[in-house]
Amino acid sequence: MVQTVKFTQQVPISSHLKELKDRFIIVGGVVLFFLGVCFYFRDFLLEWLQRPIPTQFKDLTFISPTEPFFTAIKVALMGSLFISMPVILFHIWKFIAPGLKVREKKITMLFVLSGTAFFLFGGVFCYFLVLPLGLKFLLLFGSTYWKMEVTIGLYYSFTLKLILAFAFAFQTPLILVFMTKLGIISTVKMRLYRKWAFLGCFVLSAVLTPPDVITQVLLAVPLYGLYEFGIFVSYFFEDPKNREEAVRHIMAQREAKKAAKEKKAKPAQKKRTKKTATG
User: pTM (2 decimals)?
Assistant: First the structure.
């Protein structure tokens, strides 16, 4: 059983590690249980994941005796992660909760529900929009030059990685809220570095998706939209003192840069004045 602690209670690091281990065991047990359930209903999951593929490529093949079994395990594991996500998020938040105040603990259920909703929405968005477009482009492009034989291992690995990439990428608002709450970042700086965030979304999408422009854009655009949404939501959870401190820090940096430029400009003006007087 997991032992929780109070906000004002001092506990050694060993207690935190024990709590982390206990919660990890609970989450692992839940994931394994639903892994068994999803493996039992694997026929439905396999058929569901095969729907986005174009009709002419639906006859999948396998080239290894173990490929069908491990493919079914991968699909069942993905299904288990989606079903277990509320439990995973709940235990993550409960592990963090002792360091928060009473008012902050009240948003636990909101965190769990919104995290699950964003995770599911990311997967659904990928399944219904990104996968059909991406598969149609990639498979039809290749089949115009070569004979295409899609193996179950490669197809389901591609599909699962893409769906999970979108599902986890859609957690961006929650991550931003969490980091803002801890004072690691501020909404002021997030607004200031928008152009870098926009670039980062495209870089991240290039890493998480296959090397084609369509799927990269389809992830990067909503990912940046989630970044903006994260800024908006983080504003309500941010400590006003952290926001004011960030503003002061930025203003101080600007003043320092301005003073440095003026300092460099003065010697140059003096040199010009001397040359003019000599001439």
Answer: 0.75
